[in-house]
C-alpha cells in the first residue's frame, strides 16, 4: 500500500522545515510499510517538492511549467532526480498530482520521465488560468488521425504504432515508418476532395510507399464520434502497454487535448460517412516531384478530387502496413 504524499505528511514536514535557504527537510514515500527512494521535501519557505531518482535527462519534451507547478531535472552529488515543486498555496492540487506520480513510478513501475510528463499534462487544466479552444478544423484532422490509428495502424502493428504517429510533430506525413508513410485527410465535405497544403505532402523519400486515407465526416449534434470517444477507444485498444499510453497522452497534449474539453461544449460531434484508402502512385493526382515553383513563390496549395480513383481494400491496406514494417526490421 502506498503511503503518501498526504496533507498530514506535508504538515509533518512543515513542522521540521529548515531555517536555512540551502537546506531541505526530507521524508520518504512509503510502500507496503517500507521506505522508498521517492522523497517528499520542503524548504525554509514551505515550498513543496517531490523527488524521483532517474538515470538520465528527459529524452522527449519535458513537462511544461504551469501556473504554480514546475518540473526540473536535478544533477546532484547523490544522483539525478526529476523534481516536481509547487508553492504552499497549491498544496491541495499538488498533492493528488504527487500521489499519481508516486503510484505510477513505485506501483506501476513506469519510466519516471514519461510518467511525470503524462500526468502533469493530464492535470494541466487544473493549473492553467485559461485555455484556448481547439479550432474545429484541427478537431476534424485529429479525428481522422485517431480513427486511422485505431482502425488500421494499431491492429496491424500493435501498441508500437503510436510511435509512428507523427501528426503532433507537424511532419510531412501523419504516420512515418521506414518503408511506408500514411497521410490522413479528413473532411466534412460530401466528396473525397482535399486541400494539399504543402508542396511535398504527396511526395515520398526514395524506397518508401505512401497511402492516403480519406475520411469523410458528417457534423451533427447527435453524433457519437468525438475526440473524447476516439481518445478513450485508442487507450482501451493500447491496453496495458504503459510506454505506449504515456507516448500517446503526451502527443495528444501537444495537439492541444485537455480533459476540460469534455465539459466545455467545444467538442465537435460527428458521424463517420465514408473512409477510402488510396495508394499514391504515378496515376495519383499530385504535383510531380520534379515541379519547381517560380522564383519568389514560397507556398503552394491545391485541391485534389479522389472520386474516380481506385480504392484499396481495408485488408489489403493492413497487409501492406504489416509487410512494410516486417521488411524494415
Summarize this entry quickly.
The chain contains eight helices and twelve strands.
Supply database-style keywords.
four-stranded mixed β-sheet, six-stranded antiparallel β-sheet, 33% helix, 2 domains, alpha+beta, 329 residues
Count of domain modules: 2
Strand numbers in spatial order across the main sheet: 1-2-3-4-6-5
Q: Portion of residues in helices? A: 25-40%
- What's the count of strands? 12
Strand percentage, roughly? Answer: 15-25%
Helix/strand-derived class? alpha+beta
Distance between the termini: 42 Å
Oligomer: single chain
Largest sheet: 6 strands, antiparallel
Q: What pattern of helices and strands is seen along the backbone?
A: EHEEEEEHHHEEEEHHHEEH
Which residues form runs of ≥5 with pLDDT under 50?
none
Rg: 24 Å
Helix segment count? 8
Nearest-integer average pLDDT:
89
Per the principal axes of the C-alpha atoms, what is the gross shape? elongated
Question: What report would you give on this structure?
Answer:
- With 329 residues, this protein is of the alpha+beta class.
- It is 33% helix and 24% strand.
- The mean pLDDT is 89.
- The chain is built from eight helices and twelve strands.
- The chain has two domains: 2-127, no CATH class; 136-328, no CATH class.
Amino acid at each position: 500500500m502506498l503511503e503518501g504524499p498526504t496533507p498530514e505528511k506535508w504538515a509533518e514536514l512543515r513542522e521540521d522545515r529548515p531555517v536555512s535557504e540551502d537546506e531541505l527537510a526530507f521524508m520518504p514515500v512509503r510502500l507496503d510499510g517500507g521506505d522508498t527512494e521517492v522523497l517528499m521535501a520542503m524548504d525554509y519557505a514551505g515550498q513543496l517538492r517531490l523527488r524521483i531518482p532517474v538515470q538520465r535527462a528527459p529524452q522527449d519534451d519535458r513537462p511544461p511549467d504551469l501556473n504554480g507547478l514546475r518540473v526540473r531535472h536535478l544533477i546532484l552529488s547523490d544522483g539525478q532526480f526529476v523534481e516536481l515543486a509547487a508553492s504552499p498555496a497549491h498544496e491541495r492540487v499538488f498533492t493528488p498530482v504527487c500521489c499519481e506520480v508516486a503510484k505510477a513510478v513505485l506501483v506501476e513501475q513506469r519510466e519516471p520521465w514519461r510518467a511525470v510528463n503524462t500526468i502533469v499534462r493530464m492535470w494541466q487544466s487544473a493549473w492553467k488560468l485559461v485555455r484556448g479552444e481547439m479550432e474545429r478544423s484541427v478537431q476534424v484532422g485529429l479525428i481522422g488521425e485517431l480513427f486511422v490509428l485505431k482502425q488500421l495502424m494499431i491492429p496491424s502493428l500493435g501498441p508500437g504504432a503510436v510511435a509512428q504517429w507523427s501528426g503532433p510533430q507537424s511532419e510531412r506525413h501523419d504516420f512515418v515508418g521506414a518503408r511506408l508513410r500514411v497521410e490522413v485527410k479528413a473532411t466534412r465535405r460530401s466528396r473525397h476532395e482535399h486541400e494539399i497544403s504543402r508542396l511535398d505532402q504527396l511526395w515520398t523519400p526514395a524506397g518508401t510507399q505512401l497511402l492516403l486515407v480519406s475520411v469523410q465526416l458528417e457534423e451533427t449534434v447527435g453524433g457519437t464520434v468525438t475526440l473524447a470517444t476516439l481518445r478513450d477507444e485508442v487507450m482501451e485498444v493500447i491496453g496495458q502497454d504503459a510506454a505506449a499510453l504515456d507516448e500517446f497522452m503526451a502527443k495528444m497534449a501537444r495537439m492541444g487535448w485537455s480533459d476540460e474539453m469534455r465539459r466545455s461544449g467545444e467538442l465537435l460531434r460527428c458521424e463517420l460517412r465514408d473512409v477510402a484508402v488510396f495508394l499514391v502512385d504515378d496515376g495519383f493526382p499530385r504535383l510531380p516531384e520534379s515541379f519547381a515553383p517560380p522564383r519568389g513563390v514560397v507556398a503552394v496549395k491545391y485541391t485534389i478530387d479522389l472520386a474516380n480513383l481506385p480504392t484499396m481494400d481495408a485488408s489489403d491496406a493492413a497487409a501492406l502496413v504489416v509487410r512494410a514494417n516486417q521488411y524494415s526490421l
